[in-house]
Amino acid sequence: MQRVGFYIFPDHQILDLAGPFAAFETAARMAGQALYRLSVLSRTGGLVAGRGGAPVATQVAGKTRMDTLIVCGGEISSMLEPGEVQTVARLADRVARIASVCTGAFLLAEAGVLDGRRATTHWRVARRLQQSYPSIEVDADRIFVEDRHVWTSAGVTAGIDLALALIEADHGTELAREVARELVVYHRRAGGQSQFAPISQMEPESDRIRIALSFARDHLHEPLPIERLADAAHLSVRQFGRAFRRETGETPAKAVERLRVEAARIRLQEGAEPIEMIAQAVGFSDPERMRRAFVKLFGMSPQAMRRLDRYGAAITPSA
Predict the structure, then answer these.
(1) Structure confidence by residue, pLDDT tens digits, 79-136
(2) In angstroms, rounded to a whole number, what is the distance separating the alpha carbons of residues 163 and 47?
(3) Which residue has the higher pLDDT, 250 or 209?
(4) Which of 64, 74, 79 is nearest to 18 (CA)?
(5) Backbone angles phi, psi at 209, to 5 degrees
(6) Cα separation of 205 and 10, whole Å?
(7) Domain locations in the chain as residue ranges
(8) DSSP of 243-260, one letter per residue?
(9) Beta strands 46-49; 55-60: pairing state
(10) Does the structural domain 2-183 have CATH classification 3.40.50.450?
(11) Cα dihedral sign for 118, 70, 67, 64?
(12) Would you identify the CATH topology of the domain 199-310?
């Protein structure tokens, strides 16, 4: 039996707890045996209120042995209180596997768990995580990342994807698939599927990076190698690459691909142009390259997205 503990703190995000908890509970129920023993932990024990004020009953962390510890996300300032950090650092030394959901990566980082590792978090705070903890290789383009028994996941619902991946690692693909069906979620968005972080919502600190992004938007139909973007920003290629990654959490190539996908999505929704024409208009070298980019970002092809739009179905990007 695997003992899984969920660590929470004041102002935690309730869905970061409830989603993964439900996945593990469902796995045990569907298997018809006690595969997992679940507990909710906190530094002090007792009732702990999350965002919105809903209280959750918890046990004092460290009183029982855990195999897997999952740190939930929530308000970053609350989780980084010294007592919370010290508690998680002690727990991390006692478990075989540790994970975080969404902003919970900040608590793992502050506790030293992520030093020298790859990690992810919600795309809105990925740049902050990288700047605050430069020893971590932050990959904002992943739903979840595993590096030497330390798992981190993206925002909110990605915690369910993380839980399904852990269940699959423990008990195989078929059980994880059955759990996904029961929860009515995909089995499963692969860790390599992208979070959809709209470039249009990113706010680089420097004018030079903003200029480069504006230049890219205005020239999507043309080749946009890093040398051309660096020239627009009046920086060397090396300086530009470092500054761009630091300020956006993306490589220039990934950012350009996202800009092209965003532009293509608008054209898909607003018109009836052939897919091939849209691909050419936004700078993809061929329709197949655009299809792969859409699948990576949205989990579906441009054709599937257009069909859903025409029938009035909502497209929900990766969380």
Answers:
(1) 999 999 999 999 999 999 999 999 999 999 999 999 999 999 998 888 899 989 999 9
(2) 24
(3) 209
(4) 74
(5) -70, -35
(6) 31
(7) 2-183, 199-310
(8) HHHHHHSS-HHHHHHHHH
(9) antiparallel
(10) no
(11) positive
(12) Arc Repressor Mutant, subunit A (1.10.10)
> If pLDDT is split at 50, 70 and 90, which confidence band does 296 have?
confident
The predicted pLDDT at position 190 comes to: 47
Supply 240's token pair.
């530009």
Determine how β-strand 144-147 pairs with β-strand 150-153. Answer: antiparallel
Beta bridge partners of 39: 5
Task: Using the Cα atoms of residue 85, residue 87, residue 92 and residue 96 in order, give the sign of their dihedral.
Answer: negative
Beta strands in the chain (DSSP E): 2-7, 36-42, 46-49, 55-60, 68-71, 97-100, 118-119, 137-138, 144-147, 150-153
What b-and-e string marks burial along 193-217, b requiring 16 or more CB atoms within 10 Å of the CB?
Answer: bbbbbebeebebeeebbeebbeebe
**In the block, residue with structure tokens 């230049």:** 215
Cβ partners under 8 Å of residue 314, min gap 6: 308
- Cβ neighbours, 10 Å, residue 256: 24
Q: Torsion-angle region of residue 11: left (phi > 0), alpha (psi -120 to 50) or beta?
A: left
Per-residue CA distances from 284 to 124, 174, 276 (Å): 26, 37, 9
The 10s digit of each residue's pLDDT in 167-208 is 999 999 889 988 988 887 765 554 444 555 555 555 677 889
